[in-house]
Amino acid sequence: MVAIQGIKGSFHHQVAQNYFGVEQEILICHSFREVANQLKNKEATTGVMAIENSIAGTILPNYALIDTFDLQIIGEYFLNIDMHFMALPDQSIEDIHEVHSHPIALLQCANFFEDYPHIKLVESSDTAFAAKQIKEKQLKGIGALAGPIASDLYDLEILAKSVHTVKSNKTRFVILKNKDLEKAELSNKASLKFELDDTPGSLATVLNVLNNCKLNLTKIQSLPIIEQPFQYSFFVDVVFEKYKHYEKAKKLLEIMTTHFKVLGEYQAGEPQE
Amino acid sequence: MVAIQGIKGSFHHQVAQNYFGVEQEILICHSFREVANQLKNKEATTGVMAIENSIAGTILPNYALIDTFDLQIIGEYFLNIDMHFMALPDQSIEDIHEVHSHPIALLQCANFFEDYPHIKLVESSDTAFAAKQIKEKQLKGIGALAGPIASDLYDLEILAKSVHTVKSNKTRFVILKNKDLEKAELSNKASLKFELDDTPGSLATVLNVLNNCKLNLTKIQSLPIIEQPFQYSFFVDVVFEKYKHYEKAKKLLEIMTTHFKVLGEYQAGEPQE
């Protein structure tokens, strides 16, 4: 059972299908916190969670959930977010007077609808929920903005493809499970969290260690606003060729940093074109 | 004239007042892009723009605007985002059947309203806009979620103070102007952008240089998803005691990195308690 945020037809559902296959059973959750909770309670064995987006950046609250619920990242998946304008079959754009979707999706597609001032933008809780409502209530004259999986699942016709303004909108999802710290010698990537005292050059020293151990940094993010002065937190992703190199770096970081934590060790995903 | 995103009574207006004083004239803009545009067109001499938040993280699209519109950061301001529930005077919470606010504000205060299931959450374009509508249309039975400046400005009564779930919600705003590259020798902080080739240890080398020049890192952010493989972008903030140390580091970074750009040199702001 894979816990996902959102209903069937959502982008999280798309990732679950692409990663685990279409046969995989899905556990619908109404929030990211619920995904974390279902993993903790062992209602689900794995979960899918968006973690960063090429337009909006890192979703820090999800890092906090992974950390506080002690979840483990076991994989990652990059999805191109492709927003289609869809409605019940046999209608044209002129027949549509309202489009329903998640507020962020509406925002990302607002430019497209400037050419159709007769269409009112209406907020919905989720991209897929808007599509589902149209199907279930057979709502004529209402459109949805959602991913291709939603049009398939709810038998909607695509009136316009890829109507989002910024075309390159990639989201990185992590695949999660409840932590049980199995050794993952096939991994070539790890997500780490640590804190450093504000002694000059402390981060440079850590990066030198990673470099000497042949680890390569693919992401670094300091926590945005320092609550405790002179104390800094970092989220870091590293890739490596040999697990033993990573193991050596891990031992050194445990000594050099405080609150060192491995959020996950896994196989790196491939960004789509 | 200070360009702000949002109408009077918004958190951006609050920052403009705190930073420039209450007498300062305000130019209302409906998007961050419009703020950037008004600065470029010299309709405004300065602007206020949210850049990162302790819950949601960095607002990357705003970094992109500063970069592409060639704006200059000349200051920063940290504001505690305090969300109050307000309505026309002489009503109790029981009299209110709808609360209007920005979708993110509704989300951040959703826990509070679980105790009041008779109150429907309704999306509005802006926290302050909801407050303004209530005042102008004398809407009884409707509440708004907004900052303290909105209740003052639109004569609303606060029914419940600080109703947001996560109490520590700090936002960092930058103060912007059109770039004219004046020398800012009183600065003790700078925001930089640069790119690095994916040669092992290239970031560590840059941080060693900053450290050798006595600069201290207060923020580092790699761009979230790498569009061009083997090419990394970074946004970095540094603080320093002596401008000449920073000048030396700047010269070195110009040689060591590609697309090196100073987004601003300014006096560091003080986070509130």
Would you write up a description of this structure?
Two copies of one chain form a homodimer. The first copy, chain A, has nine helices and 15 strands. Chain A has three domains: 2-80 and 169-178, Periplasmic binding protein-like II (D-Maltodextrin-Binding Protein, domain 2); 84-160, Periplasmic binding protein-like II (D-Maltodextrin-Binding Protein, domain 2, 3-Layer(aba) Sandwich), CATH 3.40.190; 189-264, 2-Layer Sandwich (Alpha-Beta Plaits), CATH 3.30.70.260. The first copy, chain A, is elongated and about 65 Å long. In chain A, strand 13 (216-222) and strand 14 (231-239) form a beta hairpin. With 273 residues, chain A is α/β, with parallel strands linked by helices. The longest helix of chain A has 14 residues, at 243-256. In chain A, the strands form three sheets. In chain A, strands 1, 2, 3, 4, 5 and 11 form a six-stranded mixed beta sheet that branches. In chain A, strands 8-7-9-6-10 form a five-stranded mixed beta sheet. The first copy, chain A, has a four-stranded antiparallel beta sheet with strand order 13-14-12-15, covered by helices on one side. Chain A has helices at residues 11-20, 32-40, 60-68, 103-108, 110-113, 127-136, 148-153, 202-212, 243-256, and strands spanning 2-5, 26-29, 46-53, 57-58, 71-80, 84-87, 98-101, 120-123, 142-146, 157-160, 170-178, 189-197, 216-222, 231-239, 258-266. The A-B interface holds A 52-61, 78, 103, 123, 168, 170, 172, 198, 200-201, 203-204, 207-208, 210-211, 214, 216-227, 271 and B 52-61, 78, 103, 123, 168, 170, 172, 198, 200-201, 203-204, 207-208, 210-211, 214, 216-227, 271.
